[in-house]
Amino acid sequence: MTIDKAANPTAKMISDLAALEGGNDLQKRVLSEFGYQIGRWVYLIDAADDYEKDKKSGNFNPFIKADINDKDYINSVLSQSLARAYDAYNLLDIIDFKPIIDNMMLYGFPNKQNAVLNNRQEVKNEQSV
Amino acid sequence: MNNPYEVLGVSPSATDEEIKKAYRELAKKYHPDNYTDSPLADVAEQKMKEVNEAYDEINKMRQKGKGTGSQSAGGYNSYNSYNAQNSKYYSVRIYIQRNMINEAERILNEAPISERDAEWNFLMGMCAYRRGFNEQANTYFNTACNMDPNNAEYRTAVNNMNNQRAYNYGGYTTNPNVNSTACSVCDICSAIMCADCLCSCCRSC
Hints:
Helix content of chain A: over 70%
Oligomer: heterodimer
Number of helices of chain A: 6
Helix content of chain B: 55-70%
Structural class of chain B: mainly alpha
Radius of gyration of chain A: 16 Å
Strand content of chain A: under 5%
Structural class of chain A: mainly alpha
Strand content of chain B: under 5%
């Protein structure tokens, strides 16, 4: 069971949900990609967060299963999903709340990712885009 | 086409400098290099085309005369312009282009182990990437690159993977080893600039 396969169900679910919001074929494709990578990120960040807990309890964890405990490696896995999501996001013509979502993609998500991997508090009062 | 000013996100009364800046930012965002192996490459290409057309239109309207300075998006060495005719995996490439990944993989999986060369690995990587399987894609692309280090197509794919895995898009960087509550050089510099601006505001003109 690879990381990719473990994340797939969650990723696919968010992908299909996001695509429903698309008004035309093109939007559906972009939202599909965006949703997939965000869903994948959510699944994996959760797995990273539960790493220690799952190790003790013996619960399934895709990183433990794949014999991965290198924080830098986990960071790049998560980053790549965020990057793909952001590239897709840039192809949407967002009008409402665009600055807020921009902020989330460039600051909110990475901030959360760093916090989880470092078991730290997130930076409050972040910069804005 | 749509209102070219709207496409660039500027007001019709924007200065030439503002227009150029807006164009550059959008060209950077939609640049084909960002989408080389992406399933959304054609979408980005379409957006790039719209931006180029809008920029050309505005310059024409403002009577810029010879040379609009807009970049041609067609000059890059894209996956789509690869000379696929020579490849024994021509049909696989077509399937991938059409996002028919099951069909592409079916053909690839038929290849005997001894024939699984660099191109085979690269195409397996493309299939994995289109499925969203980033880790598998990363492995395949790196294998292809190791088997054929001089191949630009495989090298580009690996570079893309590495860029994405660094997530340096202008916001926070994702780095589990850095305490991001500390001041970066950017924070210090902006603080100095802010202080300077404030001081200038207080000085009497």
